[in-house]
Write a structure and sequence with these properties.
- It is found in: Cell membrane.
- Belongs to the early nodulin-like (ENODL) family.
- This is Phytocyanin domain-containing protein.
- The structure is a single chain.
- By secondary structure, the protein is α+β, with helices and mostly antiparallel strands.
- The chain is built from five helices and seven strands.
- The protein is elongated.
- Helix 2 packs antiparallel against helix 5.
- 16% of the residues are buried.
Amino acid sequence: MAGSSNFISPLKNFSVPLMIILISTVLSFLHRVECVEFDVGGKNGWATPSGKNNDQVYNDWASKNRFQVNDTLRFGYKKDSVLVVTEEEYEKCRSSHPIFFSNNGDTVFTLDRPGLFYFISGVAGHCQKGLKMIVKVLEPASPPQAANEHSSAALVFAAPEFIPMAVFVLISSFIGVIFV
C-alpha cells in the first residue's frame, strides 16, 4: 500500500493545473454556441430553376433545414442578385426598396433574428421562374420557467439543465480521488 501512495504523490503537483484545464474545458463545452453556414440550393447554388414545375425548389430546400439565430446563408450565383424583402414584395416578386441587396456573386447573409425572411432575385423574370425563398428562423431555446411546487411538468423540463453539472461533479470527484 505504501508503494501506491508513492506513485500518486508526484501527480499531486499537477492536480491544480489539471483541474483548471478540466474545468475550463467543461465550461467551454457548456457555453459553446454553434452557428451553421448553409449553402443555399446545395450544389446548384442560387440559380433560376429549370423546368415549368420547379417554382418551389428553394422553399423545398429551406423546409428541409432548421435555421437558428446567427446561422448564415451563402448564396453562390452568376449574373444575378439576392434581395431580402417584405412578404408583400415577395408575393409580387419585386422590390424598389429591399431590406438587403447584394450582387457580388458570393453573398453571405446572417439570420439575425427569429421569424421569417423573404428572399428574391433582383433580376427581372427570375423570381417569377422560382428564384425566391422563404426561410423560417426558429426561436432560441429558453431556460425552463419557474413553476410552483405542485407542478410535476416543471421537473421534467428542468432535469436536463442539471445533467451537465452532475457530470462535472462526478468527474471532479473522480479526479479528487485519484490525486488525493
